[in-house]
């Protein structure tokens, strides 16, 4: 028998349920949440997962630049968008693909929630894991993510200093209260190796995030060093996780724990 419309509908529903959403959040901006999201997606892809990337940082979308897909426009059919195929084998969607670069997005909460749904409810055919880069903080987009899209887990990013960790704790408690499992905390911008002498210093302190993760009762997933190469590769649209240096190794180690 040829499949009928109902069979196709059931198949689509099953596919949708199979999508494992992993939300990446932070207490505040500039700590490397978008950098981690992009590189986590690429590292998971290299581990053999069928992973997609949603840039839900809809007020400041940076994934098109990080993934080298600036200027591309998603196709749509029956009000559903098709993800853009990035060069890294990770299909993606970002508000940045729908507005002109640098264009200000001034939406109120409900509209921002709708925009998030458009990105998450796109045609993620064949994808099993969706990494969602949330805006910083604990606002409307986060709430609508939690209530409507029920993430399978959340990864929180922080820099090592106390102030950033206090903000991170706020993001952690938002997910905790909503019953979203906390996959763990990643410490970014830990330890800076001087490019000329090689000496490692800790501009933001060290070990703070691991200790804080312990206090919050969540796993510590690892640290990413503050490295010039991460910034330059990211700006060039080449996620370091796609390379073969020490940074790719650090992102792979985190991806393995997120996948476990
Ligand atoms: P967020 O999403 O938290 O606002 P981003 O991922 O956009 O933060 O990172 C902010 C800036 O810091 C970017 O220019 C990025 O390239 C840089 N950056 C992030 N992580 C690192 C790192 N580990 N080493 C060097 N630069 C980094």
UniProtKB/TrEMBL annotation:
ATP binds at residues 27-34. The keyword Amino-acid biosynthesis does not apply. One of its GO terms (biological process) is iron-sulfur cluster assembly. Binds and transfers iron-sulfur (Fe-S) clusters to target apoproteins. Can hydrolyze ATP. Homodimer. Belongs to the Mrp/NBP35 ATP-binding proteins family. This is Iron-sulfur cluster carrier protein. It comes from Sphingobium phenoxybenzoativorans. The chain holds residues 56 to 315 of 321 of the full protein.
């Amino acid at each position: 028998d040829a499949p009928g419309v109902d069979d196709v509908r059931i198949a689509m529903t099953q596919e949708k349920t199979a999508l494992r959403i992993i939300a990446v959040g932070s207490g505040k901006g500039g700590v490397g949440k978008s950098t981690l999201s992009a590189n986590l997606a690429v590292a998971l892809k290299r581990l053999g997962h069928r992973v997609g990337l949603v840039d839900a940082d809809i007020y400041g979308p940076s994934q098109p630049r990080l993934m080298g897909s600036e200027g591309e426009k998603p196709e749509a059919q029956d009000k559903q968008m098709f993800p853009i195929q990035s060069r890294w084998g990770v299909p993606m969607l970002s508000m940045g693909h729908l507005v002109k670069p640098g264009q200000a997005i001034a939406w109120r909460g409900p509209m921002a929630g709708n925009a998030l749904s458009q990105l998450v409810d796109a045609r993620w055919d064949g994808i099993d894991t969706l990494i969602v880069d949330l805006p910083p903080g604990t606002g409307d987009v986060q709430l609508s993510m939690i209530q409507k899209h029920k993430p399978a887990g959340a990864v929180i990013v922080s820099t090592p200093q106390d102030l950033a960790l206090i903000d991170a704790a706020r993001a952690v408690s938002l997910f905790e209260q909503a019953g979203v499992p906390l996959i763990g905390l990643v410490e970014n911008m830990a330890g800076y190796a001087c490019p000329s002498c090689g000496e490692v210093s800790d501009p933001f302190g060290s070990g703070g995030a691991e200790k804080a993760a312990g206090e919050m009762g969540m796993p510590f997933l690892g640290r990413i060093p503050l490295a010039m190469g991460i910034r330059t590769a990211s700006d060039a649209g080449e996620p370091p996780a796609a390379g073969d240096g020490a940074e790719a190794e650090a992102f792979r180690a985190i991806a393995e724990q997120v996948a476990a």
